Amino acid sequence: MIDPARGVDAVQDVLLRGGHVVATADRPLAADGAREVDVSGLWVCPGFIDLHVHLREPGDEGKETVLSGTRAAVAGGYTAVVAMPNTRPPNDSALVTRLVQERAAAAHLARVWPAGAISKGLAGEEMAELGELAAAGCVCFTDDGRPVMNAGLMRRVLQYARALGRPVMVHEEDLTLSAGGALTEGTQATRLGLLPIPRSAEVSMVARDLVLLEEVGGQLHVAHVSCAESVRLLREAKARGLRVTAEATPHHFTLTDAAVAEWNTDAKMTPPLRGPADVAAVRQGLADGTLDAIATDHAPHGILDKQMPFAEAANGVVGLETALPLTLALVRAGVLSAVRAVQLLSSGPAAAFGLPGGQLLPGGPADVTVVDPAAEWTVEPQHFHSRSRNTPFAGMRMVGRVVHTFVGGRPVFFEGALQKEETA
Amino acid sequence: MKPRARHSLLTTEGMPRAEVESLFARARLHARGLESGRSVRALEGKVVANLFFEASTRTRLSFERAAKALGADVLNFTAQASSVVKGETLMDTVRNVEAMGVSALVIRHAASGAAHLAARHVRCAVVNAGDGTHAHPSQALLDAFTLHERWGSLEGRTVAILGDVLHSRVARSNLFCLTTLGAHVVFTGPPTLMPAGLEEMGGRLAPSLEAALAEADAVMVLRVQGERQTAGYVPSVREYARLYGLTAERAARLRPGAVVMHPGPVNRGVELAPEVADGPANVILAQVSHGVAVRMAILEACA
User: Are A140 and A82 in contact (CB under 8 A)?
Assistant: First the structure.
């Protein structure tokens, strides 16, 4: 069992009942009528939590639905996901929040925590009804996919969200710097004839928001950190005691802009893949605690959105079903300890957003992910549970695979397969 | 996905020197044939399709002239560039045209990578006639051929490329082609229009326009794409002309025998002063006539 929040890295039993963890112990646990699952040799972890997932429902059900997205989630070991609000219509009202919650309840797989919009219609102009969204169950506010270009709005949202006890999650991109760009500034963009996105597009916005945070308080969460300079700014801000959290994606800590090769649109996303120094800095940030969570920014797109010239192709990659082995690759590379890796997938994100779970504490939710850290497999997108196939990792050998996923004590994914609904 | 056609010409990057030189040998033959009116009818009975998704007059005419001189039948497709041409339209079009029994598709498109994308979905040859700001290999080959015919060899020569390098497919393709042939390439122009990584791609940034001109055996003047692409990068076309235009005074300080090139069409009085464009150093019309011969060699090798 690896339970970072409680400092456990030992051979232990865990007993689940009624949707909760009842007990953990380093001796055999037994209970009348309990079903025993032998997981010796495997890692028993708190259920993984993804702070950054696009489920596309309502509006783009051809790319993903709450059902297909949560299937992909549990197959990837995720017992809870935060659903981004850039749907059609966007989640800027309790009506949409409730629709997502209803679909999640019907799917009955991973827990779905909706994120509410910062601005009405994600237009970046007027504040959405954050109080109503919070009351309806939104766990954070974000215009993700778009930055909050208006600094005045950003400042007021930090103030307002603070009173609601919710973090403000930001997609940092100064659109005047990234305008027209398709790939990070550098040799690769130049040789492919793609207009560059300079690092300053991200870094300057991180700097701006840290200044606003220091001035008005609240909690800032920086999504998909991709630049070395952003990591440095976040490290300094944390050292000064600012309430900031941040996440990095598997693609940003694994790949550089070289992965774009000859216009591979499955390696196109925003922020774009950066250079080797950025990848190294993001990895260091994950290791030293500057970054709090690994989040996938799971962004499903159909073939028609991707099979076009690079600059016109849609941004984003799917990530739920490949995050675990890519994280474990950092363990094998000596960047992260096993405990830190599991922490970045579970208790780290839980703590960042104040979500339940993330640890196997008696009385807490029985959300458990069982991992075979040595299982080898090849990424075959056609076998994804997600409705979309847009991954830059197609055909790659992976080490580490999810064996079982329990949500509220129910084995929703068991022995590597989705389970039919069963009564608890 | 079908395998990429073996004889496509998509970029000059990575093109072996021997391949460039054998194209030049054929182009020399075709140039003589054009002069004498007796061309090699190498593509008799074959069909070449010109698919121009972006407006172009001279490149299309040049390819058409080249294909017809080789005896090929030519299909012309021109899409209006007024609306953004979506990728599915591009792929539908190339597949449809290929199904008509075409040996080679000559493609011009406003998006970087469009020719590669097309080549991944057809079996016939694809000749990139310019894709976005990525590549324009036939232009680079005809530029290098023009210099090669003049000098005998490009080895050790210095070519200055002047202007909006950021948005220039001609600059990129020339960099790769010229360095393959042993020339040095030095870039100069407004700093806002110099993309990152030119040194890693084999070029050099000149400390100033004057320094670049002083060492150049040839100056390749890039076209200013009007207000559209330069907007925001330079204050005005007027100031561009004043600071970066190849004026008569600047041209007078070129090395003796240095030549002035331009991919055309020239904005007279902007990037190139009229007296320089028509002056003794210019080889612009030689570029145009060599263009037909080089494109004949390309089509002959591909179709």
Answer: yes
Q: How far apart are CA B94 and CA A307, in angstroms?
A: 14
- Please tell me whether residue A87 adopts helix, strand or coil conformation: coil
Active site residue B58: yes
Report the C-alpha gap between B189 and B192 in whole angstroms: 8
Residue B50 amino acid letter: N
Report the gap between the CA of B114 and the closest CA in chain A (Å): 6
Say yes or no to pLDDT of A312 above 70: yes
Whether the pLDDT of residue B2 is over 70: the answer is no
The B104-109 sheet, strands edge to edge: B73-78, B47-52, B104-109, B125-131
> What is the C-alpha separation between A378 and A399, in angstroms, rounded?
9
**Any CB–CB contact under 8 A between A87 and chain B?**
no
Strand partners for A377 = A398
Q: Give the mean pLDDT of A200-223.
A: 98
- Whether residues A193 and B88 touch (CB distance < 8 A) is answered with no
Give the total residue count for chain B: 303
Q: Write the residue in B86, B116, B172 that is nearest to A263 by C-beta.
A: B116
Q: How far are the Cα atoms of A51, A142, A242, A244, A252 from residue A207, in angstroms, in the given order? A: 22, 18, 13, 12, 20
Count contacts between A and B (CB, < 8 Å): 79
Min CA distance, B109 vs chain A (Å)?
A: 10
Say if the Cβ atoms of A192 and B113 lie within 8 Å: yes
CA distance A157 to A155: 6
- Going from the C-alpha of A42 to that of each of A45, A147, A346, the distances in angstroms are 10, 41, 17
pLDDT of A214-233, one tens digit each?
A: 999 999 999 999 999 999 99
A339 burial (CB, 10 Å; 0-12 / 13-18 / 19+) is: middle
Sort out which chain B residues have CB atoms less than 8 A from A192's CB and list them. 112-113, 134
d(CA B70, nearest CA chain A) in Å? 32
What's the ipTM?
0.92
Which DSSP category does A315 fall into?
Answer: P
CB A249, CB A294: distance < 8 Å = yes
Between the alpha carbon of residue A6 and those of residues A13, A358, B129, B245, B303, the distances in Å are 15, 10, 63, 69, 69
Q: In this structure, what are the phi and psi dihedrals at residue A16, rounded to the nearest 5 degrees?
A: -110, 140
Closest CA to A250 of A402, A393, A68, A405: A393
